[in-house]
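Training component of the fellowship. As part of building independent skills, the fellow (R.M.) carried out the full modelling exercise for a liganded target. The chosen ligand was D-malate. The inputs are recorded below so that the supervisory panel can assess the work.
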Amino acid sequence: MRCKGELMLSALFVLVMSGVPAAAQYPSKPITVIVPFAAGGPTDVVTRLLGDHMSRTLGQTIIVENVGGAGGTIGMTRAAQAEPDGYTIAVGNTGTQSAAPALYPNLRYDPAASFAQIGVTNFTPEAIVAKKSTAASTLKQLIDYLKANSQKLIYGHAGVGSISHVAGLLFNAEFGLKPTLVPYRGTGPALQALVAEQLDYMIDQSLNVIPQVKAGTIKAYAVAASERLASLSEVPSTVEAGVDFTFRAWNAMVAPKGTPKEIVGKLADALSKALDDPNVQERYSELGSSAPTPGERGPAGLQKLVESEVARITPVIKAAGVTAD
Ligand code: MLT
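Fellow's submitted model of the complex:
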């Protein structure tokens, strides 16, 4: 007959062995990454590019789930409410992770507090583009044309709170433009509408528009930055064109708050390895994107960026007097 103490020690032994911390075994099954916009847009393209490399580092499949709507906030809400076990993560962006709180008074997540930040995936300037039949030759000519006709024109974006929506809000407010704003589930489908000339102009991540600009199916007037992009060298920067409008977009990978630090660390490490991969760096260069520097990477770098961007963008949106609800 074994004494009570021996039975308890045996039970403890079994528990410890079978309950080897989940983090040590992570990942033991495929990982889902929520992209809060439609397939084919910049957030989706970056996620699939990085996810492919990360899956090799982690030894598990990374499954992209596109959950569009409400400027990306539907997808990010789902991510914030997911089980914090490392098997559901997401890639948000400047819109969902910085502008959304000012635009959605009833937003069901806090970009700084509802997530375990993993890291910034990329920075890319926005680009001002229009349908290919647009007569204007320069950015200033385009702005003059828009000022004279905006109420008859259509501006496409990825939903209230998306980068393309916020950039458009700020650009239109600066020049007194009042186009009809038409939302899509991502700037992938919005760009297709621009190519089909169902829209008149957009401001979108340069990584999304570069292939269409080079194909001649849309016209690019400027990159909203102080310098030209090497991958779009024929297009001036806004500053060079004499227009004081810059907008740097970023995308970032997050997990639900409460995800174990060891798991977040494995994901952040796999993301950093993907960012250092020569093929990823070549693709970024082609698409006008830049990877975060080592100091900008990881959970701390992203937490700092989110907090500073929310503080920067919120008063600007409130001054524009716009909310989604
Ligand atoms: C945005 O406009 O916020 C995004 O670039 C949209 C997208 O990634 O589809």
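The panel noted the following from the submitted structure. Residues 37, 41-43, 93, 95, 158, 162-164, 186-188, 205 surround D-malate (CB under 6 Å). The chain has two domains: 17-123+249-320, 125-232.
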